[in-house]
Structures are given as structure tokens and as C-alpha cells.
Design brief:
The chain has one domain. The longest helix is centred in the C-terminal third of the chain and has 25 residues. The chain is built from two helices and no strands. Helix content is 82%, strand content 0%. It is mostly helical and 60 residues long. The radius of gyration is 15 Å and the shape is elongated. Keywords: Membrane, Transmembrane, Transmembrane helix.
């Protein structure tokens, strides 16, 4: 059965968002303390959460 084709934007939207959040988190971690540390923890936690979500979705 043939799957409907998707645009490149639809395919790469989430990976691009995860990559941009990772970049923001790394820059925030390197450039400051306080609020920037909290920002880096949250943004660098997004890829980890995505991996756990994918592992859980694959099991079910």
C-alpha cells in the first residue's frame, strides 16, 4: 500500500525544532548563570524527552 507523500517541511519540522532548542540550550549554558541555566536545563531536556517518548511509542 502506498503512503501519501508529505512535504519536506512536514518531515523535518520536529527534528529542526529539536535541533534549534538544543542550540539555544547549549548557548544559554555557556553564556550565563541563573535564568540561563534554567533555560538550558529545559531546552536540553527536550531531546532526552523525545527519545523516551519514541521508545515508549515503539513498545506499544
Amino acid at each position: 500500500m502506498k503512503r501519501p507523500s508529505q512535504s519536506a517541511g512536514a518531515i523535518f519540522a520536529v527534528p529542526l525544532l529539536v535541533g534549534l532548542l538544543s542550540l539555544v540550550g547549549l548557548v544559554a549554558a555557556l553564556t550565563g548563570d541563573g535564568l540561563r541555566n534554567a533555560l538550558s536545563w529545559v531546552t536540553l531536556g527536550v531531546p532526552v524527552a523525545a527519545v523516551f517518548w519514541a521508545m515508549r511509542a515503539r513498545r506499544s
